[in-house]
């Protein structure tokens, strides 16, 4: 006789019984409960946090999970008690343009916050006694700085990346910015010699490793231990690359989001494409073959080779898991894991909805309406089944498993996804973005003795570009506030 497949209620009853007789520890029981598909299917809006006066571009939790910190086009940073909806702290970030990311540094009693923004600035805010806040400039990118990554467990160390291709290392003990490298295009014939970086992430199991991604098809992995702090070595060469085989050589795609799981698995979200999950064994090595396999490879079916010795003898190489259904064309969207052991994958979409897949197998199990326009940020609670989301609207939505009924998938998912691929040139906000790439590369390659002349010439170039584009705007991910030439210089 064919056995009946157990549903989530069956498994819950078994888990309770095993806990009661001592076969399942309280900790494992709590993990299984938090990872329950039943809870995911009951996620609903618990509360809207409303105080910002612009698009909310960043949301994150503190270590305890009781505070949400957000940043917006209004350039303000707000601390929320998300359970009550009350504002605990609100202050101006010090940025001149839209705040793109804000994070609380660990083990600082929620008093140390780092931010980056559309003005290219990287800033540090410190909460003093009586709630006063001091902010100061730590460093700057030549163009927008979309993301920063905090070293796990460190109250001092974090990294930033920007559209100038530059990756910087910051140590709050010294307040100094170290320019590690400028990410160069892998394609010699590329019209953008510098990679326009959108995302950076640190491996939580090995904080020496970090990845960056941007305006080409490759995610690049670096080991900070290989950097010589006296600048005596070229640190720009990645130790590994990651890319689905059918996208190698495809100059129409780019990367908007990166995330590591607690098991060092790597999520990569592509613009005009899908989301992929890589393990370390799927790396292409430090010198990948740039030959395109797009015309030969079927969707996620082509083999590719790795420089890892353990995989060299394998005839067939495992392909990364793919997650489909959402649309990622219009803005710089993040991607994340969800669940106590990263059992799920979550992403926003241009259709204004949140998509949740099972990590294993890639099954889409939940689609939730979360914004009238676009959902850009989804942040999981550090300890329980709660999500925070934000997008083009001016509020933050908190999601908890409080719905009485289990949700079902909508029937019109694919209709919202189709959109012609336009390539990265269409996603650069202004013509001056491209010019800034060329200017930035020229400026960094110049001799140090001519720095003053280069800065003056560069300022004249930028002013000319902004004069040409006086009627353009789009300094933010959603086409928000404009910026001036002063935003690119100290």
Automatic annotation (TrEMBL):
SMART domains given in the database record: WD40
GO cellular component terms, semicolon-separated: Cul4-RING E3 ubiquitin ligase complex; cytoplasm
Protein's name in the database: DDB1-and CUL4-associated factor like
WD repeats, residue ranges: 49-90
Region listing for Disordered, in residue ranges: 469-490
Record-linked PROSITE patterns: WD_REPEATS_2, WD_REPEATS_REGION
InterPro entries named in the record: DCAF8, WD40/YVTN_repeat-like_dom_sf, WD40_repeat_dom_sf, WD40_rpt
Keyword Nucleotide-binding belongs to the record: no
PANTHER family assigned to the protein according to its UniProt record, in alphabetical order: DDB1- AND CUL4-ASSOCIATED FACTOR 8 (PTHR15574:SF21), WD REPEAT DOMAIN-CONTAINING FAMILY (PTHR15574)
Keywords: Repeat, WD repeat
Pfam families (alphabetical): WD40 (PF00400)
Residue ranges, compositional bias (Low complexity): 469-484
Gene3D superfamilies, A to Z: YVTN repeat-like/Quinoprotein amine dehydrogenase
Keyword Repeat in record: yes
């Amino acid at each position: 006789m064919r056995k009946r497949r157990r549903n989530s209620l069956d498994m819950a009853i078994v888990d309770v019984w095993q806990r009661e007789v001592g076969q399942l520890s309280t900790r494992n029981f709590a993990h299984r409960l938090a990872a329950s598909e039943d809870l995911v299917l009951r996620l609903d809006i618990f509360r809207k946090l409303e105080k910002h006066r612009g698009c909310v571009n960043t949301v994150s939790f503190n270590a305890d999970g009781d505070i949400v910190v957000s940043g917006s086009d209004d350039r303000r940073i707000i601390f929320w008690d998300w359970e009550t909806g009350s504002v605990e702290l609100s202050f101006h970030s010090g940025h001149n343009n839209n705040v793109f990311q804000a994070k609380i540094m660990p083990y600082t009693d929620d008093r140390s916050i780092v931010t980056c923004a559309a003005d290219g600035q990287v800033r540090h805010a410190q909460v003093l006694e009586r709630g006063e806040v001091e902010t100061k400039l730590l460093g700057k990118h030549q163009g927008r700085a979309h993301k920063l990554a905090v070293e796990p467990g460190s109250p001092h160390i974090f990294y930033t990346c920007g559209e100038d291709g530059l990756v910087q290392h910051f140590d709050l003990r010294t307040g100094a910015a170290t320019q590690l490298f400028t990410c160069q295009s892998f394609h010699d014939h590329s019209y953008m010699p510098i990679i326009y970086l959108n995302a950076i992430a640190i491996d939580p199991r090995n904080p020496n490793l970090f990845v960056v991604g941007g305006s080409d098809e490759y995610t690049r992995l670096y080991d900070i231990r290989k950097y010589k702090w006296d600048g005596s070595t070229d640190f720009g060469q990645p130790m590994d690359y990651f890319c689905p085989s059918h996208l190698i050589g495809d100059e129409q795609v780019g990367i908007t989001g990166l995330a590591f799981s607690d098991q060092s698995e790597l999520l990569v979200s592509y613009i005009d494409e899908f989301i992929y999950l890589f393990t370390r064994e799927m790396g292409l090595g430090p010198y990948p073959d740039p030959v395109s396999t797009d015309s030969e490879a079927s969707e996620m079916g082509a083999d590719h080779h790795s420089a890892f010795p353990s995989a060299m003898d394998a005839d067939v190489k495992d392909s990364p898991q793919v997650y489909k259904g959402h649309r990622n064309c219009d803005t710089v969207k993040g991607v994340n894991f969800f669940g106590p052991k990263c059992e799920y994958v979550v992403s926003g979409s241009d259709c204004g909805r949140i998509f949740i897949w099972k990590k294993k197998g890639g099954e889409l199990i939940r689609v939730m309406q979360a914004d009238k326009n676009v959902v850009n940020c989804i942040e999981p609670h550090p300890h329980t089944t709660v999500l925070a989301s934000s997008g083009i609207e001016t509020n933050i939505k908190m999601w908890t498993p409080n719905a009485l009924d289990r949700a079902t998938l909508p029937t019109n998912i694919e209709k919202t996804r189709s959109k012609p691929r336009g390539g990265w040139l269409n996603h650069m906000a202004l013509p001056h973005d491209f010019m800034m790439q060329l200017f930035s590369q020229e400026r960094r390659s110049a001799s140090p003795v001519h720095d003053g002349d280069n800065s003056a010439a560069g300022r004249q170039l930028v002013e000319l570009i902004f004069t040409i584009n006086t009627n353009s705007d789009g300094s933010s991910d959603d086409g928000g506030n404009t910026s001036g030439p002063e935003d690119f210089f100290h």
